[in-house]
Amino acid sequence: MLITLGLREKDGRYTNAGVLFADKNDYRGIDLVKFGDNINVMLDRTQVEKVSILKLYQDALQKYRQYYLNEVIDGAYRRKNEQIPENAFREAIANAIVHRTWDVNAQIKVAMFAD
User: InterPro entries this protein is in (predicted)?
Assistant: First the structure.
């Protein structure tokens, strides 16, 4: 099935796409930094490396939800409050992963600020 999907060669080696989807690989991944009042104050830093691009994506969304998604109780109702639209954040991360230059061994950098 991996050969049919173009993720593995007939000789058993993974294709470039196969390596990107593998649970373990040699790619640097993504560096997510949550800043405080300015860039000199780093509140949290997560570096996700040498894992599947699907895990990169999931971990970035988890950090988004940690810092930009909260719930507000308004009377008897609870509603989600998105400081940044989740669809926009997902699209930005997906574009960064898909359109990056994979032959350059560098991380995708995501800087997260309160505003």
Answer: RecG_C_sf
Structure tokens at 12: 């058993």
Q: What is the DSSP letter of 51?
A: B
Give CA angle at 95 (19, 46), nearest 5°.
70
97's tokens: 């992963």
Residue 49 lies in a domain: yes
Distance CA 99, CA 110 (A): 15
pLDDT tens per residue, range 4-59: 888 889 898 888 889 888 999 989 999 999 999 989 999 999 999 999 999 999 99
* Domain boundaries, position 106: 26-112
Report which of 55, 32, 34 is spatially closest to residue 107, judged by C-alpha positions.
32
